[in-house]
């Protein structure tokens, strides 16, 4: 898994692994649902297109954040779940969501559509 990239800050490295618009949402939803299939991600993250979602899932798998289990069935059935590394990341992602919620309450930055989806109130 070692890369030949150079980073000058640990935050830069972390954002390379989990950065972007969709990866934190994938991690967040898996931290609440334990196991999800591709179609469930599409319902939970309606604005992501399939190609981008597939790429984000593959990159998270390559970096040992999620585990992909292919049941080799027809029709295909594939499930995703967090690895221990991904589980360790979950509180950080939830904390980021809480920060976003507080920021929005203070500055009225955006209209929220999917709020209070889970008990932790961070999304």
List keywords for this structure.
123 residues, 11% strand, 52% helix, mainly alpha, globular, Arc Repressor Mutant, subunit A
Structure description:
This protein is mainly alpha-helical. Helices cover 52% and strands 11% of the residues. The chain has five helices and three strands; from the N terminus they run H-H-E-H-H-E-E-H. Strands 1-3-2 form a three-stranded antiparallel beta sheet. The N and C termini lie far apart (31 Å).
Sequence-ordered SSE layout with sheet pairings:
Elements lengths: L9 H9 L4 H11 L1 E3 H7 L5 H13 L3 E5 L7 E5 L1 H24 L16
Antiparallel strand pairs: 1-3, 2-3
Helix pairs in contact: 2-5
Helical/strand content category: mainly alpha
Evaluate the radius of gyration: 15 Å
Largest sheet: 3 strands, antiparallel
DSSP strand count: 3
Overall 3D geometry?
A: globular
For this structure, the CATH topology is Arc Repressor Mutant, subunit A
Low-confidence stretches: none
Residues in helices, as a percent range:
40-55%
| Order of helix and strand elements from N to C terminus | HHEHHEEH
User: How many structural domains does the protein architecture include?
Assistant: 1
Query: What is the terminal separation in angstroms?
Result: 31 Å
Mean pLDDT metric:
92
Output the number of helix runs: 5
CATH superfamily placement: Winged helix-like DNA-binding domain superfamily/Winged helix DNA-binding domain
CATH class: Mainly Alpha
Report the portion of residues in β strands.
5-15%
Short summary:
The chain is mainly alpha-helical and 123 residues long. Helices cover 52% and strands 11% of the residues.
